[in-house]
Amino acid sequence: MFKALADRSRRKLLDQLHAQNGQTLSELCEHLDMTRQAVTKHLVLLEAANVVATVWRGREKLHYFNPVPLHEIYDRWIKKYERQRLRALSDLKKGLEASKGK
Amino acid sequence: MDTPKTVYISYIETTPEKLWDALTDGEFTRKYWGGRRIQSDWLVGSPVKHIREDGGIDWQGEVLKSERPRLLSYTFHMHISARHRGEQPSRVTFEIEPMGAVVKLTLSHDGFVSAGATFETTHHGWPAILSSLKSLLETGNPLPFTGLGFGRSGEARTSLT
């Protein structure tokens, strides 16, 4: 997944989907300064990393930004730090309220 | 079929049957869905409710499709605030496909107003819920919710666990 996000063009593609979810390949190409082949190649990588989800509508393939793998990383590495911060704030609030009550 | 507004995919090391039960059994949802129990007899046309530990209802709907262990779809009307209640019921669909040793879970959520309250809440909620579900099925441990998930817009319910 980090490899998928390591490329500027692929991050731009994800930004596009984040701004408007459910685009076809042609719609994505309209907003990007890349060949159709390049966009296709990037989409394959993003889909393999599961940060892009695809759904077929008739003969059209629609692309969606899939935040689930990013959330798994958030849960694994980021949330624990956030929780410590929240606990510190909570302790501070309790401390301040307790001293106010005296 | 109209265009889904959001699509979420998770690959989970489990069986389709276990995943189905995890989505439809209230005792199971309580573990990974912030203490909330899902309640329905899962017959097409039956009501579905999502009940908090305090007995309040987060959302309710009606079963549209129920084909164990492959396809589950219900309408979804959030009750957590007046803004949510004022929006039309949306639609949630779970597709379960075995892929070798893992199961692909595709969740599509559509039929809500763009940038509305339901979208805002669920767009933060679904990834948290799916990550917690994946963790529970694969390791036996759900992920702790820190006021995220469906509690996000209800500030009063934000906990510091």
Structural class of chain B: alpha+beta
Strands in their spatial order, largest beta sheet of chain A: 1-2
User: What oligomeric state is this?
Assistant: heterodimer
**Which fold name is given in CATH as the topology of chain B?**
Alpha-D-Glucose-1,6-Bisphosphate, Chain A, domain 4
In the CATH hierarchy, the third-tier topology of the largest domain in chain A is known as: Arc Repressor Mutant, subunit A
> Count of helices of chain B?
4
Biggest interface pair, counts: A-B, 21 and 24 residues
Spatial extent as radius of gyration of chain B: 15 Å
Order of helices and strands of chain A: HHHHEEH
Strand order of the largest sheet of chain B: 1-7-6-5-4-3-2
Helix content of chain A: 55-70%
Q: Main sheet of chain A, how many strands, which sense, barrel? A: 2 strands, antiparallel
What is the name of the CATH superfamily of chain B?
START domain
Summarize the structure in words.
- The complex is a heterodimer of chains A (102) and B (161).
- Chain A has 102 residues and is mainly alpha-helical.
- Chain A folds into two domains: 65 residues, Winged helix-like DNA-binding domain superfamily/Winged helix DNA-binding domain (Arc Repressor Mutant, subunit A), CATH 1.10.10.10; 36 residues.
- Chain A is built from five helices and two strands.
- In chain A, strands 1-2 form a two-stranded antiparallel ribbon.
- In chain A, a hairpin with a 2-residue loop joins β1 and β2.
- Chain A is elongated, with a radius of gyration of 21 Å.
- The mean pLDDT of chain A is 88.
- Chain B is an alpha+beta fold and 161 residues long.
- Chain B has a single domain, classed as Alpha-D-Glucose-1,6-Bisphosphate, Chain A, domain 4, CATH 3.30.530.
- Helix content of chain B is 27%, strand content 33%.
- Chain B has a seven-stranded antiparallel beta sheet.
- In chain B, a hairpin with a 3-residue loop joins β4 and β5.
- The interface between A and B is medium-sized, with 21 and 24 residues.
